[in-house]
Design brief:
The protein is mainly alpha-helical. The protein has two domains: 115 residues; 148 residues, no CATH class. It has nine helices and two strands; from the N terminus they run ααββααααααα. A two-stranded antiparallel sheet has the order 1-2. Helix 2 packs antiparallel against helix 3 and helix 5 packs antiparallel against helix 7. It starts with a helix and ends with a helix.
């Protein structure tokens, strides 16, 4: 079952890549769009089944680079699938589908060469997976925000670049930004909830910095999403809130580690 799910996901992602390429090169894109979405849907489902076997093995839980890349590309592919029912994101699917296939292939190849962690509980494993996924998606959202800022400047100065002509319209790219933020916020919420449930003392001295900053980042992302839904925030306003929230989140992940392992021991 595991091998079947792995190779089915890879084959479906490659088929999705081929159809996306043909769709971009033809005038009749609307005719191939249902086939493209059907293939991507099947690929995402097969990838999800595969991830169950990749992340949780008989020897424990996997947190190695290839397993996490597979999880991240699946999350992005799932988000693109949802958004593709409303927007035409063929070029982005063409970019993500082969990456998802490669990450799945790498995860399968590394299966025998990694040492799963056997001494952690399923609750702590879920907390770690949610945290890594949230940080990764919100990192992608930050890169998307930076791209949107650059694109806004290009359009403002009436100098659109070649790459901007190949990508979907600005409004669609903004929808992708808010989709990444919303999905990342959902995973960040799950990370905080599982941390509260399964970590012994979330506000212990060695965790209080990370916990407090993560909650602050969660609040900033919530304000951004509320402002977009209620007041139509977009453009540079959305970019500023996204960058500010991510800066706090980055401090939570790396700043507390730096303080505990470098600054405080010297003091």
């Amino acid at each position: 079952m595991a091998a079947f799910a792995h190779w089915t996901a890879i084959a479906l992602y490659l088929a999705t890549t081929g159809v996306a390429a043909v769709t971009l090169s033809r005038q009749s894109q609307a005719r191939l769009q249902p086939l493209l979405l059907a293939l991507l849907t099947c690929a995402v489902v097969a990838h999800a089944i595969s991830l169950k076997f990749v992340l949780q093995t008989d020897s424990g839980f996997r947190f190695d680079l290839t397993a996490m890349l597979s999880l991240i590309t699946w999350s992005v592919a799932l988000l693109l699938l949802f958004l593709s029912f409303k927007h035409r994101l063929t070029l982005l699917i063409l970019a993500i589908a082969p990456l998802a296939a490669l990450s799945e292939l790498a995860a399968v190849h590394a299966w025998g060469g990694v040492s799963p962690l056997a001494n952690i509980s399923p609750g702590i494993a879920a907390h770690a997976l949610f945290s890594i996924s949230a940080y990764s998606l919100l990192t992608l959202a930050t890169l998307q925000a930076i791209y949107l800022y650059w694109l806004n400047q290009q359009l403002h100065n009436h100098r659109p670049s070649g790459i901007s002509r190949l990508l979907p319209p600005l409004q669609t790219m903004e929808s992708l930004l808010f989709g990444l933020v919303a999905f990342g916020q959902l995973l960040l919420t799950a990370s905080l909830v599982t941390g509260a449930l399964f970590v012994d003392d979330l506000f212990a001295q060695h965790l209080v910095h990370k916990t407090a900053l993560s909650i602050l980042a969660w609040i900033l992302y919530s304000i951004l999403l509320w402002g977009h839904w209620k007041n139509g925030w977009r453009g540079n306003t959305a970019v500023r809130w996204t960058l500010s929230a991510f800066a706090i989140l980055m401090l939570a992940f790396f700043g507390s580690k730096l303080a505990l392992e470098v600054i405080l021991p010297r003091g």
